[in-house]
Amino acid sequence: MTWVVTWTGTVDHDWIDELDHVNFLKYQQVADLASLDIWKNAKGEQAGSLEFVMTETYVRYVRELRLGMPVEVNSVLLALDNKRFQLLHHIKSGGELMCSVETLNLCFDSQSRKVANFNEDITGHFASWPAPPLDAKSSLSITRKGDAW
Prior knowledge:
The protein is an alpha+beta fold.
């Protein structure tokens, strides 16, 4: 039960908006970079046209990132089924939580433009992730009533 470091960086000038703080979309972009890295590791080289799309997101801003601050994204896999995975990213600086971004993600085949099941490699990769720690609180749900997928 542990968080996995999935992205690191530093707040750069291009993150700063006209109000001299990090634009709210940049927090989400940083989480997206972590999700992309997770997906690349999961699908490996043999996944062909399998990709993922984010279908839902929940963002909670806690503290402001400032120019030059170090950034580390810690992630957990909250849930998965045969075609969806749910991630929680904690964006931190100096050990302090700055923002949390939770996402629901769906596997799809980019050639057929249809929802797709994970292949064995993706399923195996996600199965190797540790169980989420007790402090990984979910705001979204991977299951839905009347789910059409």
